[in-house]
Amino acid sequence: MPKLLLGILRAALLLILALKIINLFLHFPKEINALLNAAMFTLIGINFILVGSKWDKPIIKIIFSVCGLYLVVMNFFSSTALLNVIGIVCILTPIIIARFSTDKEKLAKAD
């Protein structure tokens, strides 16, 4: 089940990415662009939460879950510079952890 869910999430993220690229040329209205941004951050957050559950170390699970939860929740607050910086940190932190972790070979075998 989680593999199917991750596959659906990745397909949805690719669709959002394609729509964001199309937006560069067609200039969608602000409401559509805001909806695309909210969907993109929500899907990235859900993806972090699901992928974070595969790690063995509890601290990494917590970091992934907190970052994913923040990315989902930040769509419901008005945007400020501080919240945007925290959002960028929440996107980059799990990526950096996954890149430099020694458990990545074990995670690749689990998939």
TrEMBL record:
Superkingdom of the source?
Bacteria
Keywords, sorted A to Z: Membrane, Transmembrane, Transmembrane helix
Q: Which residues are listed as membrane-spanning?
A: 34-52, 59-77, 83-102
Q: What is the protein's name according to its record?
A: Uncharacterized protein
